[in-house]
Amino acid sequence: MPMAGFPVATSSVEFETKITPVVIISCLMAATGGLMFGYDIGVSGGVTSMPSFLKEFFPTVYDKTQELQEDDSNYCKYDNQGLQLFTSSLYLAALTATFFASYTTRVLGRKKTMLIAGIFFIFGTMLNASAVNLPMLIFGRISLGCGVGFANQAVPLFLSEIAPTRIRGALNILFQFDVTVGILFANLINYGTSKIEGGWGWRLSLALAGVPAGLLTSGAILVDDTPNSLIERGYLEQGKSVLKKIRGTDNVEAEYYEIVEASRISHEVKHPFRNLLMRQNRPPLVISVMMQIFQQLTGINAIMFYAPVLFNTLGFGNDASLYSSVITGAVNVLSTLVSIYSVDKLGRRMLLIEAGLQMFVSQMIIGVVLGMKLKDNSNHLSHGMAILVVLMVCTFVSSFAWSWGPLGWLIPSEIFPLETRSAGQSVTVCVNMMFTFVIAQSFLSMLCHMQYAIFLFFSGWVLVMSAFVMFLVPETKGVPIEEMTDKVWRQHWFWKRFMNDEAGGRRISL
């Protein structure tokens, strides 16, 4: 597909854009992939605290929760590899699926990749809700994990490419906002279904995942693919037509030619994964990989996966633990709204650095309180100390929700050039799922052996990641997605040494 004939220069062109209803509706539909992801995160922690679920699939854990022996630590009553596999299998499957998703995103487009994700979600929901044994339950989680791999590959790219530059951050964070809404819905549903008599409430919790799965599938059918994806696959006129529709103007020549030129360059790259390792692509690769590792080492999944289990472990009881999880879920949603409002005003770096301080302080307080009050394995906190722990958990969740949660997905989705964007997003999702799997599979064992020190462990990593942001993560607020090389990497005190003459100079002169 020849795309030559467009002169190349380094001058910057301001694109004429409007915030059109098409953009808003398309982004809302695409972001339902986050709703499904969040629901999967929240529902697993809730059902694993339900006695009826444990009795049917994990009887040894059920027995431990019913009657602790005198020499047993309250921290260890949920320490079971099978129980952890129920949660973590989703992320292991997502890790594998993302490599296939990279291919479909590039060859079939963002739209069809989201549709594939929706189909996996629906199938996995059916398996989980009707499970009669542990293998069936695990296979359902694996199918959901494949959906996560495809959705997390396609949705952030879709949102970044379709959004006008000045509100790209806010629209992209819709994905993370829907993640938090999904977690909150899961916590509310778990709280309600845990009270259903007959012990089948967990099935309803798992079955209701079909609602966000259906929303994503129908949304993927209705939306147009991004102009970047259409042009990259050779549909130039269709891409230009969609660009006019989403920008609300016929004056799209500047942006259209820039996308065409970026697409021409991307077609010269025969091995995008290999090209990621080239010197000029190392800055976005390193930042994307480290942000995924750091996002998990904040300890957020340790809290959100197992919030009901965690509060139960602290002696809150089943109802209180689920209720406390609903509170943290609501804080998560409201705090993500802060990020949507401020990310394109304050910038990415300020949110990350402020949140680092807040997360460090709150986790240190949690670790110290638990260390002082639960040394004797008394299994209970005083009422005042229990409230303090919940407040500090909410403080931690709020800071994560307006920083590392949404920005961990936003920044990688906007810093790769088009020729390596799908491959870069694939590596981003893969690393995220790998470390999510590690945390999910090991947290309960870590809680058993490290006890209160687990929170001190995570708080130490928060200091490391805050220093990383301060020195090595550049500001990308307001920078057009195809101009990152010239306006970000070439201007950064450290990363500019990785840029060569071939890495820039791709702007279109009109």
TrEMBL record:
InterPro entries: MFS_dom (IPR020846), MFS_STP/MST-like_plant (IPR044778), MFS_sugar_transport-like (IPR005828), MFS_trans_sf (IPR036259), STP/PLT_plant (IPR045262), Sugar/inositol_transpt (IPR003663), Sugar_transporter_CS (IPR005829). It comes from Cucurbita maxima (Pumpkin). One of its GO terms (molecular function) is monosaccharide transmembrane transporter activity. CDD domains: MFS_STP. Keywords: Membrane, Sugar transport, Symport, Transmembrane, Transmembrane helix, Transport. SUPFAM superfamilies: MFS general substrate transporter. The chain crosses the membrane at residues 21-39, 83-101, 113-132, 138-159, 171-189, 201-223, 285-309, 321-343, 384-411, 423-444, 450-473. GO terms for cellular component: membrane. This is Sugar transport protein MST4-like. It is found in: Membrane. It is a multi-pass membrane protein.
